[in-house]
Specification:
CATH topology: Deoxyribonuclease I, Chain A
Helix content: 10-25%
Number of domains: 1
CATH superfamily: Endonuclease/exonuclease/phosphatase
Distance between the termini: 24 Å
CATH class: Alpha Beta
Number of strands: 14
Length: 237
């Protein structure tokens, strides 16, 4: 199950609605991957949302787009990383990623997340996203990319992403792109965020790529940047 979720952090903080936000995330369980946009504290979000056993990567600021994964289902391969893809009036914009091995099948997966700029959905931005995907994907990897792209589907930026990944599900500017087989998907209410939850279930096969019958769960929300310290785990009790 894969979900893209922009947390609307500044507004939730200003109105003290974090309990509602954490409950919204809890409602989506079980899932195995989650990408965040507008998430200033992924450690606290993972902990307070009850995501026991999840590892996570905050990525750089400003405009962070963290990722988190269930370490009982996915084993991390190497270090997470990030890349600047654009800049707008709010600062640098990034994409984050981590390579994972799906323990039930042995399939490898590149999981990546982004929060696009508020202006400019042209070829330059699309090239940054595409080059990040191509550089980080290893032979045999399936790919899941979540995010608030801040770009309509018809723009050159998203057409560049769609040249390497299928647009499996979207809710306006929030998307889930993948190479894995889509099993099911839906938009869900995201309040107290001003974005919906975009949720999908995808199939991973054995070593060598997508395909097979095992559904994989994921969610998206956040921001990314340059490589930052190694991921940490949420407490299991």
């Amino acid at each position: 199950r894969v979900v893209s979720y922009n947390l609307f952090w500044w507004n939730v903080a200003a109105t003290n609605r974090f309990e509602e936000l954490h409950n919204r995330i809890k409602e989506q369980m079980p899932f195995d991957l989650i990408g965040f946009q507008e998430c200033e504290d992924v450690a606290g979000t993972v902990r307070n949302s009850g995501l026991e056993g999840f590892e996570y990567f905050q990525g750089p600021s400003p405009n962070p787009c963290p990722i988190a994964w269930n370490s009982q289902v996915f084993e991390r391969i190497g270090e997470p990383g990030s890349k600047k893809v654009a800049k707008d009036q709010w600062g640098d914009r990034y994409m984050t990623w981590v390579r994972l091995k799906h323990l039930p099948t042995g399939a490898t997966l590149l999981f990546t997340n982004t929060h696009g700029p508020l202006s400019g959905c042209g070829d330059d931005l699309g090239s940054e996203w595409r080059s990040g995907l191509v550089a980080q994907r290893q032979p045999g990897d399936a790919v899941v990319m979540t995010g608030d792209f801040n770009c309509p589907t018809s723009t050159p930026a998203l057409q560049a992403v769609q040249s390497v990944l299928a647009d499996a599900y979207h809710g306006g500017i929030d998307h889930i792109f993948t190479t894995a087989g889509a099993v099911a998907g839906e938009n869900r209410a995201g309040y107290p965020s001003d974005h919906p939850l975009i949720r999908g279930t995808f199939a991973l096969g054995g070593p060598g790529g997508a395909g097979g019958s095992d559904g994989v769960g994921a969610q998206a929300a956040g921001d990314a940047g340059s490589t930052t310290p190694a991921p940490t785990s949420a407490p299991t009790s």
